[in-house]
Amino acid sequence: MLILTCPYCGIDADETELASGGEAHITRHGAGASEDDFETYLFMRKNPKGVHFERWRHANGCGKWFHAARCTMTLEVFGTYSAQVFEPPKDLIAKIKSKRPDFEGFEK
């Protein structure tokens, strides 16, 4: 079972208390965007075998959105952080690299 710690209220919640929001850090284009940009936003997602950054909502708790870094193969959770940032915190990236030397880094 997947257990994530909400960075806002500090509660360890299992996946039944959370709502998945898909991939984190996706570029959302404005009203003047091209059809290709809109198509990319709607349909093109990374589906890595390894470390992945995701959006989650603490649905049965504080109700806030947050981001999580986890391994899609082992379900190991490296950490959670605020959804109000544009990229993962540097200390989280360092933690991932220390545990997973094959991790190449964060790319938008």
In short:
The chain has 108 residues and is α+β, with helices and mostly antiparallel strands.
Structural features, described:
Helices cover 18% and strands 29% of the residues. The protein has two helices and six strands, in the order βββαβββα. A four-stranded antiparallel beta sheet has the order 3-4-5-6, with helices on one face. It has a two-stranded antiparallel sheet with strand order 1-2. The protein starts with a strand and ends in a 9-residue tail after the last helix.
The backbone outline, from C-alpha atoms, is globular
* Widest sheet: strand ordering: 3-4-5-6
**What is the multimeric organization of the chains shown?**
single chain
Beta-strand fraction estimate: 25-35%
Instruction: Write down the secondary-structure element order.
Output: EEEHEEEH
Mean pLDDT over the full residue set? 91
Return the CATH architecture. 2-Layer Sandwich
For the record, what CATH class applies? Alpha Beta
Main sheet makeup: 4 strands, antiparallel
Terminal Cα separation, in Å? 28 Å
Helix count?
2
CATH superfamily: Folate-binding superfamily
Helix content: 10-25%
CATH topology: Folate-binding fold
How many separate structural domains? 1
**Which structural class do you get from the secondary structure elements?**
alpha+beta
Total strands: 6
Flag low-confidence runs.
none
